[in-house]
Amino acid sequence: MPLSGATILQVIPHLAAGGAERTAIEVTEALTAAGAKSLVASKGGRLEAELIRAGGELIRIDNLPTKNPLAIRANAGLLAKIATTRNVSLIHARSRAPAWSALWAARQTKLPFVTTYHGVYSAKGSLKRLYNSVMARGDKVIANSEFTARHILSEHPWANGRVVTIHRGVDIAKFSPDIVSSNRKDDLLKSWKLGSTPSATILLPARLTGWKGHREAIAAAATLKAQGAAFRMLFVGDAQGRDGYSHELATLIAANGLDGQVMMVGHCDDMPAALALADIVIAPSNLPEAFGRVAAEAGAMAVPAIGSSIGAQGEIIVDGLTGLIVPAANPDALAGAMGRLLAMGPDGRRIMGEAALVRVRERFTTSALQKATLAVYEGLTGQAR
User: Fold this and answer.
1) For residue 21, which of 1, 51, 57 has the smallest C-alpha distance?
2) Which member of 56, 149, 268, 305 lies 3.0 to 4.6 Å from 28 by CB, making a disulfide possible if both were Cys?
C-alpha cells in the first residue's frame, strides 16, 4: 500500500545523539518525501530541531524512557489514543521499555507493529530475556546488521521468518570528502585549540565509555610512541556524565607520558570535518558493535578504519582492503595495526580509503536504509491484526 497520506508513529525514549535517534530522523525525512506524516513519540533531546526540519512532529511523553511497569502500561494507553486520534497506520518501536507500551497500543488498535534492534541485548536469566523479547515481537523485526540478525534468532528463534536486515546508513551527501572545506577543518582545529601537525592524526570518535576502547587506545599509543612513531590521537566525544571515566583516561594519558599527544577534545557537531582531519580512524570496541557507524562514516570519508573482530564491524571493513580488523581488548594488536597504516604513508592509506569509500557507497547509505524501511512499512500498512 502506498505511503502517501499515511501516518507512521515512531516510538523512541530520547532524541539525543545515538544511532536509533539518528535513524528515526532519517526515516522521517523519507516519509516526508513520500508524502506521509511522521510522528515521533519521545521525551525529546538535542535532536528535536533536526526532527522538525526533517518534517516530523514530536509528541512529547516525558516518562517514555521509564521501566516502571505502571508507567509502561499508562504509556500504552497514551500511544493507543494518539494512534486513534491521529489516524496512525503503523507503529514502529526502537527501544525496549517504550516498545512494550507500543506493542500493547498496536494490539489494542489493531495496527501493524515494527521493531528495530539498534543494539544487542544480553540476557542472563529468563526475566531479562522476556523483557528483551518485546523487540522480537514485531510483525517485522529489523536488524541493523547480519550480526544482530543472528543474535535475534539465537535469543528468540520463534522470530524466524519476520527478521529483515537493514544496515545502518551513512548520509553520503553529508559524509563526503569532496564537500568538507579547508575552512571547516581549520575552524574545528581552532575550537579544539590545536594547530596543524606534520604527523599523522588518529581519531577515535565515540562517547567516553569504557567499552569503546579508550584505555586500549592509550596503551597502544604508548607502544607506538616507544617505537618512535609520529602521530597524535584525538578522542572525539563527550563523557555524558561519566566524569570518573574521563578523569581515569586523563590520568592514564599523563602516566604514559602522552600529554599533548593523546587528547580528549569533547563533543563534535561537525563529524565530517573531524573525519576529514584524520589519517586513520580507530574503533577498538571491547564489546560487540551491533553495526559500526564509526567504520562506515570513516569509509564514506575515504579514511581507513581499524575495528574490532567482534560484532558487525567486519561487515563494513574488509580486512586488508578497506581497513584492518584486530582482536578486541588487545592493545598490542591495535598498536600493530596502527603502526602498519602509519608505515603505508599517505599514498597507501589513500588507496585503502578509496576502497572503503566505494564499499560504503555501494552498501551502507542512508538512502538504502530509507528505501528498505519504507518498503517494510508498505508491506504492512493496511494489515489488520
Assistant:
1) 51
2) 56
- Judge if 77 and 145 occupy the same domain: yes
Which residues have CB under 8 Å from 297's CB, separation 6+? Answer: 170, 175, 205, 271, 272, 275
Instruction: Provide the CATH number for the domain around residue 208.
Output: 3.40.50.2000
Closest CA to 311 of 294, 290, 336: 290
pTM score, two decimals? 0.91
- 69 in the same domain as 105: yes
Residue 4, judged by CB atoms within 10 A of its CB (0-12, 13-18, 19+), counts as: exposed
| Cell triple for 116 | 528495530
Backbone angles phi, psi at 305, to 5 degrees: -120, 150
Give domain status of residue 176, yes or no: no
Per-residue pLDDT of 111-168, as tens digits, reads: 999 999 998 988 889 999 999 999 999 999 999 999 999 999 999 999 999 999 999 9
